[in-house]
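Problem 3 from the worked examples.
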Amino acid sequence: LIPATAAALLVLAGAVLIRPGGAPTRGGGAEVEMALADAGAFTYCDYSAGTTLVWFSYPADN
């Protein structure tokens, strides 16, 4: 599960960092934020669609 999570985070980071040329970062674009206080929380905001996604990733209970 950990390798899959790491791969997913790399893909998401790549998608955020590699934008099409001239793509807006504010106003009509999207914003990604990772909370430093909670490393298991990931927030994605798409202002043009009016959508916010919050993803909580915690280790499985043994």
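Problem 4, a separate protein:
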Amino acid sequence: MFGCLRLLLAFLVALCHLHVRFYGFDEGQIAVILFYILSGYVMTALIRKYYTNFESVPSFYVDRLCRLYPQFIFWLVFTSFLIFYFGYRGFFITDPHLRYLVNSILILPLGFQNLTQFLILPQTWSLGIEEAFYIIIPFIILYKCQKIVFFISFSLYLISALTKTDYLFSTPYGVGSFSQNLFIFLTGSIIFDSRNTITKPIMIALAASGVLIAINELTGFQIRSPCMEICIGYIFGVFGIIFFSRMRRNKVDDLLGEYSYGVFMCHFPMIFVFEKYREYLFNPEYSNENLVFFLMICFTMSVFSFHFMERPFLKARHHLRRFMLKVKY
């Protein structure tokens, strides 16, 4: 039911990194917010069904590692080869060093450190924040403290938005710190637990988002740009997740959703290749036709990386989940 949405969001992130903008807003940051809400929804469904106690938390971590790493490692190695083969240097590739490579492999540090010196896959900073969410979400759910943590995180976000202060433990790449993104993940979690309805915490967050947008548009007080994208993404995300959650699942939609991660991972190395041979492949500017061609290439590469790199691990994840249903602690 979420497959087409996930693929669309991955395409929006790719277009963002080609400097395409819709009505002046960064659609990539908005897409990341929707990804986070969706992640909270899906992870809560996963934990509620398969990983229902503290003893099963390590198995949940194995499940997530099998999801993140197969394609991540493949595209990390592939992109590293491109960087050194082409001798590429850019904003994210200025100081190659082993410790930066280790940070990339671990994923988690990417969401918490200013790693612009050597970031092989620049878009993976958001995976660092998502990995941190994976670490703590089982405990938030099992201790039944979703709403408390939601309000703490949302309060930090409001303080940052209204005072224009730097984000706590912020990343330089867009939508802020883990502490202030946590309420976005938990929005999806609360929506799942409330059977796809809007509860009081989410109503408050929606109202606050609308007020922040109104303040920005109708007064001289300018909300900092990432906060605006968070507000817009949050409003679209809440209603979008509820809308798509009421649709029936089907195999085609599920498969398109599986391809979304590959699009997200491969679009930067494809940008490296296209920029290298741009004079042969593209007009001086990215026309609509060229953008469609680029997205088609990314989709094709994602099909390859999913079926050859992730699919074997997908079977292992499903086997693990069936096993967890049978185990009684």
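Solution to problem 4. The chain is about 70% helix and 0% strand. The radius of gyration is 20 Å.
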